[in-house]
Every structure is written in structure tokens, then in C-alpha cells.
Specification:
Layout lengths: L44 E5 L8 E4 L5 E4 L6 H9 L6 E7 L4 H13 L1 E7 L7 H9 L4 E4 L5 E5 L2 E7 L16 E6 L2 E5 L5 H10 L7 E3 L11 H7 L3 E4 L12 H9 L3 E4 H4 L2 E5 L4 E5 L6
Parallel strand pairs: 3-4, 4-5, 5-6, 10-11, 11-12, 12-13
Antiparallel strand pairs: 1-2, 1-14, 2-3, 7-8, 8-9, 9-10, 14-15
Length: about 300
């Protein structure tokens, strides 16, 4: 545990109370720590790439039962997906991460805030003109809000942590909304998962040049497999074994782009697509992994 002084309690949500730790390092480091026992779990880290159409929504359950939702997809489909992976009587989520406020990431989160008791929010507070963003700001007031910056650590319990890789501390917002996406890395034992929002090649190159910690076993492809992302430089730096593509069936953008799929094949990266197989579950025990899909969608 990092050295710390004051530990103000965050609002309890029934399952868990969390603390915020202030590090002695120059950049603030967050650590959310479970204070009491939660529901019995099997001690594994579970990551669900939810089937929400043309958008991103990723649900995480820690080895101790803490729950995180990263983005919410373009509409209320995320609520139905959450009902499939959470206990039927569970109406609380410990942490929601909004990578960036574009409609295909934030719209579903509005429905989540209306239906679930969200204890904590991690976001990059950039300006956005969308109506969903305005409603999000009105509804999130019951949660404890944290602004993302590189170097933050979220302790999920049981040895699983989230590392905030991007945005870099002190960096100015980018003109392109996608390139303001929060990038986080899940680490559990010897396994790691990189979640990339919608970043594009300029940020990928910056990360490859200055952030060696992006090397990961598993990669959520940025921007739904768009040709503007998943560059050679980025794949060389991340060296993933397996990738996951959150994308809608027969979408009008042509995602995932054939060039990106060919690049994954070239690098020997297996990939799973939500448009073909629906929801994908990645299960980690700290050493081994298992991938479960509704259908066989591995390529």
C-alpha cells in the first residue's frame, strides 16, 4: 500500500466503502480499497466486453467482488447487458469510468446513472456539447468524482489494480475528442489488459514512445477497429496476444477496417468481435486465462 496521510471516507454504496489515498509523489495517486467483506466470489478477475452495438461498454468484476463499468455504449442496451452479468438484485456499481463523452460511450451511462447507485466516477472533464453529456453532469452528482491523470492507481481488491496510463499529468486537452480518451490498464498477477477508448494514431505513437507500461497481454482495440487506430507502432509496443473489438453489426463506418484486421493477423493476434459473437468474457486467475463467448467468434 502506498504511504498516505488523510483518508476521507467516500460515500458507502452498501457493498463496499472506499478510501482515497494521497501519495507523496508529485502526481496524485488514487487507490480505492474495500473496507469490509463483499459477496463471495471465486477469486478471479472477470472482464466482460458487453454487446451494446456500435459503441464501448466493459464491465469488470474484481476477485473480491468490486464492480467497475467502463463506458456505456450508445443507448440503453447496456442496462440489459448488465442485468445478464450482475446479480438480479444488485443495483450498485462501485466505479464508472467515462473514457470520453462521445455518444457511443456516454449515452448508455445516462441510463446507468438512472438505474444504479454509482459510488465513484473517473473521467476526463473536457468540454462537450452533446445533450447526453449535459444530462450526465446533472445525474452524476451523487457520486464521488475523480479527474483522471497518468499515475493514478485504483485498487480493486484481491491483488487486481487499474493503472491510469493517459491522459498524461498536466497535458492539455486534444482537439479531437477521441484523443482525449482515458486509457487504463488492468493488472492481475501475471496478466494485463489495456483498454484504449477511441484513441487514434497520434496518441498511439506518443504512448509507444514514452509509456513502456502499455505492454499488455490483452488489448481492447481503439475506436472499434477504425483504420485511424491500431497502428504498427502501437501493436509493436503493446505486443498483445489477444484483442477484443467492440463494434456494431453492419455498422455504417465499416468497422473493423480490413486493414486493421490484416495487421492483427500479421502480428499473430487472435481477436474477438462483439458484432459476430455478442458479449465476450475474459476470465483471469493471475496466471491463466479463459475466454467465453455466446458464439464462436475467435479469428
Amino acid at each position: 500500500m502506498l504511504p498516505h496521510a488523510n483518508q476521507p471516507k467516500l460515500r458507502p454504496v452498501g457493498k463496499v466503502n472506499w478510501l482515497i489515498l494521497t501519495a507523496v509523489a508529485a502526481a496524485a495517486v488514487l487507490s480505492f480499497v474495500a473496507l469490509r467483506a463483499v459477496a463471495l466470489t471465486d477469486g478471479r478477475l472477470k472482464i466482460y466486453f458487453l454487446d451494446v452495438g456500435q459503441g464501448d461498454a466493459i464491465f469488470i468484476e474484481s476477485p473480491t467482488g468490486n464492480q467497475v463499468l467502463v463506458d456505456g455504449g450508445p443507448d440503453s442496451q447496456v442496462v440489459a447487458e448488465l442485468a445478464s452479468v450482475m446479480p438480479f438484485d444488485d443495483r450498485s456499481i462501485d466505479l464508472v469510468v467515462l473514457t470520453h463523452p462521445d455518444a457511443d460511450h456516454i449515452n448508455g451511462l445516462v441510463d446507468v446513472l438512472k438505474r444504479y447507485n454509482v459510488a465513484n466516477v473517473l473521467e476526463n472533464p473536457i468540454s462537450h456539447s452533446g445533450s447526453a453529456y449535459a444530462e450526465w453532469n446533472q445525474l452524476k452528482t451523487e457520486a464521488k468524482i475523480f479527474n483522471a491523470q497518468s499515475g493514478q492507481v485504483v485498487d480493486l481488491g484481491g491483488g487486481a489494480v487499474i493503472l491510469v496510463i493517459y491522459p498524461y499529468t498536466g497535458s492539455l486537452p486534444k482537439k479531437q475528442a477521441n484523443n482525449n480518451s482515458i486509457i487504463i490498464k488492468l493488472v492481475y498477477g501475471e496478466s494485463s489488459v489495456l483498454l484504449t477508448g477511441d484513441i487514434e494514431t497520434p496518441v498511439e505513437k506518443e504512448l509507444a514512445a514514452r509509456s513502456p507500461e502499455i505492454d499488455s497481454d490483452f488489448l481492447k482495440l481503439a475506436h472499434h477497429g477504425s483504420k485511424t487506430s491500431t497502428s504498427e507502432e502501437f501493436l509493436n509496443a503493446v505486443t498483445p496476444e489477444t484483442a477484443f473489438i467492440s463494434v456494431g453489426a453492419k455498422n455504417s463506418y465499416g468497422h473493423p477496417h480490413p486493414t486493421v484486421l490484416a495487421r492483427l493477423d500479421k502480428h499473430g493476434v487472435k481477436y474477438y468481435r462483439t458484432d459476430i459473437g455478442g458479449r465476450v468474457e475474459l476470465i483471469l486467475d493471475g496466471l491463466n486465462y479463459q475466454i467465453i463467448t455466446n458464439h464462436s467468434n475467435e479469428r
